[in-house]
Structure formats: structure tokens, C-alpha cells
Amino acid sequence: MVSLLILIPLLVQQLKQLGEAIPGIFNWVENTLAPQVQEWTGYDLSIELTNARETLVENWRDAGGYLAQALGQIGRSGMAFVSWITYVALIPVVTFYLLLDWNRLLDNIANLVPRQWADDTFRLARRCDEVLSSFCAGNCW
Which parts pass through the membrane (predicted)? Predict the structure, then answer.
């Protein structure tokens, strides 16, 4: 995840520099390379250069849109991964503190239950505990 935080800005910077360098590359090919190729071989590169420039201009915006979609998906996936890792890391911490303060937690919950419902509430809680314990003993192990 940290590598994505480093790579994505570098990739964006490199693509920006490429976009800024492309006109210079086309000028160099048009003014330096094309005359040399025509002198050596008699072949005119201007037609291919014009076609390449038009194709690049037509598809450059689409390529940027696809890149934006890909980066957005990577960002969403990365955030989901970070959330998952956070939840997995919190499970032992929460479990430790629940085990440490379990009796105090039960006492505080017992104080929240109205006295006229206390017997029924504790009976149902014990029954739920028995059922869940039996389920885990039979299916978890």
C-alpha cells in the first residue's frame, strides 16, 4: 500500500512530463529525422508523422480517462485493503480488552437492565450462551 502511495504520484509526474515532451519529439522527428530519412532513402516520413500526430491527439483524452479510471479503482481497492488490515489488527486488541474487563462489563450491563426483567434477561442470556457454545463446539472444531 505504501508503495502505491509512492508509485502513483511518480507515475502521474512521468505521464505529465511525457505529455509535455511529445510536441518536442514530434518537432525533432519532423525537422531532424525526417529530412535525414528522406535524404538517405528517398522516403517521406511527413505522411506517417501527420497520421501519428492525429491518432495521438484523438486518443490522448481517452487514454487519460482510462488511466483515471484505473487509478480510481486502485485507490478504492487500496482503501478497502487498508480497512481490512485495520479490522484484522483491531480484533486481537478488542478481544484482549473484552477478556480483561469482561466481569466489569457484565456488571455494568446488569445495572442497565430494569429489575423486573432481570431474571428473564439473565435466563435468556445464559440460554443464548449455551446455544452458541454448543454450535461452536460442534461446528468450529
Answer: 81-100
Angle of CA points 104, 106, 110, to nearest 5°: 115
Cα separations in angstroms, 36 against 21, 24, 25: 22, 17, 15
Q: Which grid coordinates are listed for 117?
A: 426483567
In sign, the C-alpha dihedral spanning 14, 15, 19, 24 is positive
Q: Would you give the end-to-end CA distance of the chain in angstroms?
A: 35
Q: Return the amino acid letter for 90.
A: L
Amino acid 102: pLDDT: 82
Q: Which of 49-53, 71-75, 99-103, 107-111 has the lowest mean pLDDT?
A: 71-75
Q: Could you give the angle at the alpha carbon of 121 between the alpha carbons of 117 and 125, nearest 5°? A: 175
Q: What amino acid occupies position 112?
A: L
Per-residue buried b or exposed e for 5-37, using 16+ beta carbons within 10 Å of the residue's own CB: eeeeeeeeeeeeeeeeeeeeeeeebeeeebeee
Rounded to a whole number of angstroms, the CA Rg of the chain reads: 33
